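Technical annex, item 7. During the second reporting period the consortium partners agreed on a shared format for inverse folding records so that results from different sites could be compared directly. Each record opens with the tokenized structure and is followed by the designed sequence. A conforming record, contributed by the partner at site C, is shown below for reference.
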């Protein structure tokens, strides 16, 4: 184990004179409290270390001890349903209100273990050798670490065991023995190995109509959600966490203000899982790293979160990771880079900002695991551009590496229109891959209707500029109808209340029914106006209120009411056409 002595300190970065070889990214222990740090660079006998804890009590001459291993976290059954800091040290379930210096991981817990293998079985890397089925919370698999395999020598009997206790002994092909516990460590900056990547074939259903129907993200895909202060990013991410079709939720609060993060930590454990009726936290992991915590730990929290997500993915689970926000993570990179004396690039960020973002989003994918199961990690990263400027470096670089772009618009948020996603700036590159899935859901018209809605919204924006100049009443009837129909699509379909019992979640079947009902109205309205029916007559139809409020009034168990609403559309337009014909004949 290499040793060094601190020569000088600058905030979270220190320089030390080494008395042995250190490796880049090696984990180190610093000072009398053995604070956690990581080697950033080595020049001759001088090493540069970023410290993940408060450096107030450090002084020149204090020792720095190398561990010989990279920065890693302990992965096991004890992390599900807990709240941690950016280095996976517990913030819940402890006797202290603070993370004590020198704490590297949570205290190991005890769990009911059920073996899935017997002596003389052959197990491969990543295979499940045991199962944990607690009275509360979801069932988990115990995995053979990716670097271990061989013949089972012995396995623990069914019963309660500590998660760090040896429950499996293996002998590999070279005759070496391996002791395996329910938990194991893994370097956070190293992606966990997989069997192979699979195709993007199924959407991550979020229950939000704007996303699922217009800008879907594939399960195992990536999405960026930029937005300025007050545009609703946190509420939207909580809605996604609660309603998306993921087996496990990993929520990373990276560098947010303490008061915002405290609200999340207070409200998130109280959310009810709509699948089970139990607390949502039982299938969630929260990683909280507020802006007043050490800046270096903020930089590591993103990697910690995605490593945790990969661990559950390797159990054959589908994981959604919400990162709020990657801008604060990038600011941590910028601060550390400045303290290292590196030349800044655009916006003062380091030149390697793009490569670090690419490394993070590259770890999202649907995969076949080493154990032969199918799992996925979907990454949804919030971005907080200063002043809502989407041309700043973090937003621009994030767009390069994500397939879905969900920008939050300040004007829509100020008008109390939520979710405040701007439909003409948003896009999804997963649409072509997901169209077959929608056809299998008996919605063959999904792609056409989606394009029709977006076309209406785009035409509305162009006509609104004209209407401000000449007045809406001066526009031709067809253009007035376009404005009316676009307003209806906005109000009836895109607006969705996260706090309404009926409207907060919309299944694919209900989304399809709503789209078909609106599509029918658009067809009949266009034909009626072409036949000479005044636009005001269409605007004043009695069914307009029902159409605008169908998301609030027609629930998941009442899909047949959409057929009734569609018949009402036909009946009212038939009556209007008959009245117009009678007036013409008179």
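Designed sequence (site C submission):
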């Amino acid at each position: 184990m290499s040793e060094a002595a601190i020569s000088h300190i600058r905030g979270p970065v220190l320089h030390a004179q080494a008395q042995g070889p250190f490796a880049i990214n090696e984990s180190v222990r610093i000072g009398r409290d053995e604070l956690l740090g990581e080697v950033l660079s080595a020049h001759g006998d001088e090493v540069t270390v970023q410290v993940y804890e408060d450096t107030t009590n450090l002084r020149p001459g204090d020792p720095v001890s190398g561990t010989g291993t990279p920065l890693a976290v302990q992965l096991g059954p004890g992390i599900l349903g807990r709240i941690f800091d950016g280095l996976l040290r517990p913030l819940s379930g402890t006797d202290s209100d603070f993370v004590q210096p020198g704490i590297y991981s949570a205290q190991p817990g005890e769990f009911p273990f059920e073996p899935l293998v017997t002596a003389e079985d052959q197990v491969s890397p990543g295979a499940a050798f045991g199962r944990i089925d607690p009275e509360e919370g979801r069932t988990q698999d115990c995995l053979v670490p990716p670097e271990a395999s061989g013949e089972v020598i012995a396995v623990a009997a069914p019963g309660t065991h500590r998660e760090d206790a040896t429950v499996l002994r293996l002998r590999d092909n070279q005759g070496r023995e391996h002791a395996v516990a329910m938990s194991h460590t893994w370097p956070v900056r190293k992606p966990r190995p997989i069997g192979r990547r699979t195709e993007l074939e199924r959407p991550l259903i979020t229950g939000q109509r704007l996303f699922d129907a217009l800008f879907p993200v594939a399960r195992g895909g990536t999405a960026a959600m930029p937005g300025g202060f007050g545009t609703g990013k946190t509420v939207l991410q909580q809605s996604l966490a609660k309603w998306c079709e993921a087996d496990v939720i990993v929520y990373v609060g990276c560098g947010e203000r303490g008061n915002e993060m405290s609200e999340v930590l207070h409200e998130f454990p109280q959310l009810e899982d709509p699948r089970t009726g139990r607390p949502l936290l039982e299938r969630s992991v929260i990683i909280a790293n507020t802006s007043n915590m050490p800046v270096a730990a903020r930089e590591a929290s993103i990697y910690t979160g995605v490593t945790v997500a990969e661990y559950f993915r390797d159990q054959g689970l589908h994981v959604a990771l919400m990162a709020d926000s990657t801008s604060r993570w990038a600011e941590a990179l910028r601060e550390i880079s400045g303290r290292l004396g590196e030349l800044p690039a655009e916006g003062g960020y380091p030149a390697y900002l793009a490569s670090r973002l690419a490394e993070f989003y590259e770890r999202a994918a649907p995969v076949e695991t080493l154990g032969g199961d199918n799992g996925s990690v979907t990454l949804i990263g919030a971005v907080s551009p200063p002043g809502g400027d989407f041309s700043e470096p973090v937003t621009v670089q994030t767009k390069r590496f994500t397939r879905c772009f969900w920008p939050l618009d300040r004007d829509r948020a100020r008008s109390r229109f939520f979710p405040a996603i701007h439909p003409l700036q948003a896009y999804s590159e997963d649409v072509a891959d997901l169209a077959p899935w929608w056809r299998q859901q008996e919605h063959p018209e999904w792609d056409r209707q989606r394009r029709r809605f977006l076309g209406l919204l785009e035409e509305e924006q162009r006509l609104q500029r004209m209407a401000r100049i000449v007045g809406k009443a001066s526009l031709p009837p067809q253009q007035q109808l376009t404005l009316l129909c676009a307003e209806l699509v906005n109000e009836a379909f895109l607006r969705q209340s996260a706090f309404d019992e009926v409207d907060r979640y919309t299944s694919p079947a209900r989304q399809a029914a709503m789209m078909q009902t609106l599509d029918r109205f658009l067809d009949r309205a266009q034909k009626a106006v072409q036949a000479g029916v005044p636009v005001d007559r269409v605007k004043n139809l009695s069914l307009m209120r029902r159409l605008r409020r169908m998301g609030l009034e027609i629930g998941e168990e009442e899909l047949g009411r959409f057929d009734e609403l569609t018949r009402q559309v036909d009946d009212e337009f038939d009556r209007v056409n008959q009245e117009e014909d009678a007036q013409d004949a008179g």
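The longest strand covers residues 374-383. The domain at 3-70 is CATH 2.40.30.20 (Elongation Factor Tu (Ef-tu); domain 3). All partners now use this format for quarterly exchanges.
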